[in-house]
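Below is how a single chain appears once it has passed through the pipeline. First comes the sequence as given, then the structure the pipeline wrote out for it. We keep one example in the README because the format questions we get most often are answered faster by looking than by reading.
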Amino acid sequence: MGEVDGETQLQELLRRPPADVATWVVQQAQALSSGEPVEQLQIFQVAGALSAVPVEQKQELMKSAISGFGQLPADQRVEALRFAVNTAVAGSSNASNATGRADPVMQNVGKLLKEAKIDKLPPAEKQQLAQEIQQDAAQLVQPQQILEVVAELKPEEREHVTEALIEAKLVNEEQKAVLEQAMRPGGYADKLAAALKLWAMVEEYSAVLLALPFLELLMALMFGGQSCPSGLSAWLRADAISAVVMVGGVWLCSSQLEPVLQHVRQDPVGVGQQWQQNQNLPLQQRLEMLVPGVGIFAYQLSAIGAVIAVVFLAFGLANTLVGLMELLGTVIVGCSISVAIISMCFLAVRCATVVGILAAAKIVLTEIQVMSLDGYTSEDPLLRGDVFERNPMQP
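Resulting structure:
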C-alpha cells in the first residue's frame, strides 16, 4: 500500500475484495509472529484509524476478512489458522504465567488492541462486534475449510485447534469430541485433504487419461495390418475398443453427476449431514433432495454409465492376462516389432491400473477394519454433527 496514513489504508481495505483483505491480514499476522516492531506495521496504523470510524465500518472490515478466508490458497489458510491457534495458546499461557512475562506475540496483539481502543468501546458496541464476528464466521467459514488446513498443522498445534474454536464460539461444546476425532493424525481432516488432492490430480490429468484409449485405438488401426502371428495385434484392437467404451461410460456418468460432484466438493460435510438427516426417506427422494435441480433421471443415466465403465474396466483388466500371454507368444511365433512395442506400452498401462486398483482396495479394507476395531457403527455421527457413536457392547 505504500507509506500512507492509517485512515487512507483503512479506506482502501474497505474497497478491496474480501480475498485481498484476508491476504493482507495473513501477511500482517506473519509479520507480527516474526517479531517485527508492531509500531512499524501497516496493521498498527489501521488499528489506530479503526478506533475513529463508525461501528458499521468496523463490521464491514471484519466481515470482509472473514469471508475472504475461504477464498485464500490452502497455504495462506494454514498460516491464518496457525496464527490464531498459537495466539490463543500464548494467551492461555500468559494467564497462568506466574512470572508475569508476556509472550512477544501477545505483547504485539495487546498493543494492537490498545491502539484500536477496543477497551474503550461502549459495551453495546463491543457486544455488537462480537455477535457480528460469530455470525459471519458461522455463515461464511465452512467446516470443511477449517478441516482442510488442519492436515497441514503439526500434531502439537492440532491439539489446540478445538479449544480455540470452542472459546471463540465458532464450534459448539457438543462438537468437541467430533473435532478431536477429525483432527487427530490420520483422522477425517487428513483423509479429506488426501481425497481433495487426489481429486485435483485427476482433474489436472483428466485430458491425458481420456486421450489414452483413443490413442491406443489409433495405433491399433494404423499398425493392426502388420504381420503378427501371435495375435498381439488382435489383442491391441480389442483392448483399445474396450477402453474407448469404458471412457464413454465414464463420460456419461460424470456429465450427469457434474452438479452433484461440484456440490459435494464445495460442502462435503453439509452434503453428508443432509444425507443422514433424510435417511428415513425413500432412496429416490433422498437423491432428489441432495442437490436442487438434479432429478432421479440424471442419477439413473449416471448409474448406466457407471455400470458400462465398470464392466469394460473389468473386461480390460481380465484381457490384460491374455495380452501378457500373447506377448510371451511373440518370442516363439514372432510379431511386428512396432506392434510388439506399442502393445508393451499399453500392457504397462493396464498393469499399472491393476496395481492402483489393488492399492485402493487395500486402503478401503484397512479403513473398514480400523473402524470395526474401534467400535464405530455404520452411521457416522461426524456427518450428523455428533460424536462418533460407539457400539454399546464396547467398553
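The CA atoms of residues 118 and 126 lie 8 Å apart.

See the next section for the split statistics.
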